[in-house]
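User: structure tokens for this one?
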Amino acid sequence: MISENLRKKIRKVDSDLNSAYKPIAGKPLLQIASLTFIATLLGLFYIWEYLNMFKVDYFEYFEVKDSFKILYQNAMPIIYVGSLLSLFLWILVPAILKNKNVQPDDQQVEEQTDPKAIKGITNAAVIITVILGLCGFWVLLSAYKFELLQTIILLVFATAACYLYFKGPKNLGVVAAIIIAFLYAEVRARKDAELTMKLKPRKDITLSGQQKPILKKEDTTRYQIFRTSGYYFIKDDLQKMIFVYSRTNGEMNSFYVE
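Assistant:
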């Protein structure tokens, strides 16, 4: 038999889940302009961390438009996972919202008069959305073979960021989300660089206006480590050199690496 005290707790939880979501009031920390600035820094941070694995100082070849390209490339898997999760939201959330109609009349009246309550959005819908978002984040981390400890740390931070944003100081949640984004970018850059070192990608590359290619598929010691809007970065394992070729004028710089 379920005790009366437990029944009350269950009813309270059910009532809380089906009540309208009331966001914490606060001035938003990020506007569109600042969000664009942070996204640009995130892309540049990824490239810097990636090339740093090859002992290349990216800021000697810095171009802001490189950031947008790398963000676009890395956004595709996120968009794909997000589109799959949106199907679950499309199925689950409407069913949750329908349950709101069984609330007591006095609670419905209270929510309708509460200026903080978002009409039609329940706490349960918010929780389901967050859980699905975290599941999608986990799928993304698993797809890129993040280590278990790295995955746990990022998921814990992501959970904390969601809680702070929806139930605590919003700005603190935004700051936590930014930290997560940069941590993710750092780990991804290192993993991508390690994968490049392992695969040693090679293809025929000839600069505009030149006949001799700077890289061939048949090369056994040279491979492309990165390409920006203005430069090709080629590494030669035999000579322990990195060659940087300008895509605009064909100039070449090289330096020794361990």
